[in-house]
Specification:
single chain; mainly alpha; 6 helices; disordered N terminus
Amino acid sequence: MVVRHEMVAGEPLAAFDAAGGRTLGAFLRALHATGPAQAVRHGAPSAREAPALDLAWALHGAPPVFARAVAAEYGAAPDLVERALLWHRLGPWHEVTYGLDTGGPDTVRSGLEGVLARLPAGTCETA
């Protein structure tokens, strides 16, 4: 897996450890220090949601030690962590809709598995 901002050339993370988490947290903090109006002019989502979207995987899909380091280095407030969780839960739906658009049943199936995996515990009972 390669973790990098699509607008910035990067290298794959060597390890999902605390040091890597701090590096990513510092990068995202610097990235988000750009003025909101300027970022939106360059194609970023709304100033409120860009940080949450960028942090979604790092805070909620990465190994816990990595996620804690990202949050600490970034200085993620509880409301930002919560919004990032919502974006993380929405992520697999992109795979579902892509599969539907391209006629890829395996992609749809994979996306739906991701949707179910990201639901809060006890939300979905399977037979």
